[in-house]
Design goal:
The complex is a heterodimer of chains A (about 110) and B (about 110). Chain A is mostly beta strands and about 110 residues long. Chain A is built from no helices and eleven strands. Classes of the chains: A mainly beta (about 110), B mainly beta (about 110).
């Protein structure tokens, strides 16, 4: 089945700098890749997603890139702010007939230092 | 106010006891999911249901049980067979479609007394 690996597990950056989180997946048939942000004591929330027919997607300060050949995708956050501090999860949606589910990475704890 | 409601926020289990975590959604979503979250291990799928009266095991179903008698509700029972139940439990729901965007509740933290 699908396996998603996420790196790094922790990331600390200065406010205003950029942050990059990377994920690799194993199933080349996976076709949808969302990113979720989880703030302390809350459930994860979708922040951006990308489908397998697109190489890059941007939404203000966040962007996601996908390399299907290498089977990896990345989250880029520019001009980081203190409110970006959270745990971020990547996920992949495998193509399984009759099943709709996501496989999540292990998470990255991002800390923005003022 | 639409969304997913999990209760209780905190739950304590005694040895040998079964406990049930509640998950209710008013988003009219067909699919619902239960995840377990442990530090450094991300979100692991326990059970999921794509339609009323049907559910499938996820990756770590042993020691857990679910039911899906109503579209809005997907309760999770942590049985005494689950020897290490201490974790943060998250419920989610989604529409069926190409994307599978999942909406999460605020979670229940389960601890063993």
């Amino acid at each position: 089945g699908e396996n998603v690996e996420q790196h790094p597990s922790t990331l600390s950056v200065q406010e205003g700098d950029s942050a990059v989180i990377k994920c690799t997946y194993s199933d080349s048939a996976s076709n949808y890749f969302p990113w979720y942000k989880q703030e302390l004591g809350k459930g994860p929330q979708l922040i951006i997603d990308i489908r397998s027919n697109v190489g890059e997607k941007k939404d203000q300060r966040i962007a996601v890139t996908l390399n299907k050949t290498a089977k990896h995708f990345s989250l880029h956050i520019t001009e980081t702010q203190p409110e970006d501090s959270a745990v971020y999860f990547c996920a992949a949606k495998p193509q399984i007939q009759g099943a709709q589910k996501l496989v999540f990475g292990q998470g990255t704890r991002l800390t923005i230092n003022p | 106010d639409g969304g997913i409601t999990q209760s209780p926020k905190y739950l304590f289990r005694k040895e040998g006891q079964n406990v049930t975590l509640s998950c209710e959604q008013n988003l009219n979503h067909d699919a619902m999911y239960w995840y377990r979250q442990d530090p450094g291990q991300g979100l692991r799928l326990i059970y999921y249901s794509q339609i009323v009266n049907d559910f499938q095991k996820g990756d770590i179903a042993e020691g857990y049980s679910v039911s899906r008698e109503k579209k809005e509700s997907f309760p999770l029972t942590v049985t005494s067979a689950q020897k290490n139940p201490t974790a943060f439990y998250l419920c989610a729901s989604s529409v069926q479609g190409a994307k599978n965007i999942q909406y999460f509740g605020a979670g229940t933290r389960l601890s063993v007394l």
